[in-house]
Design a protein that fits this description.
345 residues; NAD(P)-bd_dom_sf; ODC_N; alpha/beta; globular; ODC_Mu_crystall; ornithine cyclodeaminase, domain 1; 13 strands; Ornithine cyclodeaminase family protein
């Protein structure tokens, strides 16, 4: 058996910049990769969490991401998602590479989100286009929140960022980490609200008034050009009535029909797009009550390939809402880009 290449987290990050990942995703979608051909993710119980297996295939490479999800780990100072990516030759089905999986996920997820945001911004009608320094509001203060800020700088290098979290210490740690990184030290990032340390998010309908910062969160939601949701909440984290008329909202933090980050009010107000219609119908709680079976059949939302190919119409005066749960093809595209970057002559 030929040697199997190993890619550490540091090597994955070195070879898979956000610009590289976004370009790889766009190229795959333009060249005919359909999110609707992706198979369902496979979940199984694990001690204190669950296993997640995500197989995917293409003409050149195939692979499977094998992860563990430990919801209590962040409270222990550990990563919530850990695992490996196994890459195979599609010709021989021989394993050719193993990649550290949590770093791959930390890059892939925001790259997918920013691919969607990039095209929603480009498809904005006259009167709804973003300026050169958009106001970006991020909900969440974990790994994905930090990486979404870094990814957003690819297209919006002059953006300013606000961060909303339930725990002030985590928001402060996120801002400190971004300030200590030479690549992001110049980026204006501020805490929004006081982080009320309650079960309800400050600024949500349930959390409104729960802390001195709740009002400022509402104001930030109303003023934001782009809102990125990276939480693990099972209930809406903001009041959809407050989102700006032409804002872009991207919800990427949850999976499962019983978990959601936005309310039906936002979904009803917005032009909606998803990663894939099949995965959205199976797993996306943000759409579970707004889209019944009849709606999925008669007027399903656009998917990510539609966005990249320009087959999507935004309406002046309506927010654009993108929501995803993570799909296996995305990891394969990104893992293939990492492997090809090292082995390319």
């Amino acid at each position: 058996m030929p040697g199997i290449e190993f890619f550490s987290a540091a090597e994955v990050r070195e070879l898979l910049g956000f610009d590289v990942a976004i370009d790889a995703l766009e190229t795959a979608l333009r060249d005919g990769l359909s999110p609707e051909d992706d198979g369902p993710r496979l979940f199984a119980d694990a001690p204190n969490g669950e296993f997640l297996l995500m197989p995917a295939q293409s003409a050149t490479f195939s692979g499977v991401k094998a992860l563990t999800i430990a919801p209590q780990n962040p409270e222990r100072g550990l990563e919530k998602i850990q695992g490996l990516y196994l890459l195979y030759s599609s010709d021989t089905l021989a394993p050719i590479a193993v990649l550290e999986g949590s770093c791959l996920t930390a890059i892939r997820t925001p790259a997918v989100t920013l691919t969607a945001i990039r095209h929603l911004a480009r498809l904005a009608p006259e009167g709804a286009r973003l300026g050169s320094n958009p106001r970006v509001l991020v909900f969440g203060a974990g790994t994905q929140a930090i990486e979404h800020v870094r990814a957003a700088l690819v297209d919006f290098p002059d953006a300013s960022f606000g961060v909303v979290g339930r725990r002030p210490e985590r928001v402060a740690a996120m801002i400190e980490a971004l300030g200590a990184d030479p690549a992001t030290a110049h980026v204006p990032v501020t805490a929004v609200g006081d982080g009320a340390n309650t079960d309800a998010w400050p600024g949500s309908v349930d959390g409104a008034g729960s802390g001195d910062g709740a009002g400022s969160v509402d104001e930030a939601v109303a003023a934001a050009d782009i809102i990125i949701l990276t939480t693990t909440s099972t209930t809406p984290v903001l009041d959809g009535r407050l989102v700006g008329a032409n804002a872009i909202v991207a919800a990427t933090g949850t999976h499962g029909l019983d978990a959601r980050e936005v309310d039906d009010e936002l979904v009803r107000r917005a032009d909606v797009a998803v990663e894939g219609r099949g995965s959205g119908r199976r797993e996306n709680g943000n759409l579970a009550s707004a889209y019944d079976d009849a709606a999925w059949e008669s007027s399903p939302p656009a998917n990510l390939q539609d966005l990249v190919r320009g087959n999507f119409t935004r309406t002046l005066g309506r927010p654009a809402f993108y929501t995803g749960v993570g799909m296996s093809w995305e990891d394969l595209v990104c893992a293939s880009a990492v492997y090809s970057a090292r082995t390319r002559p």
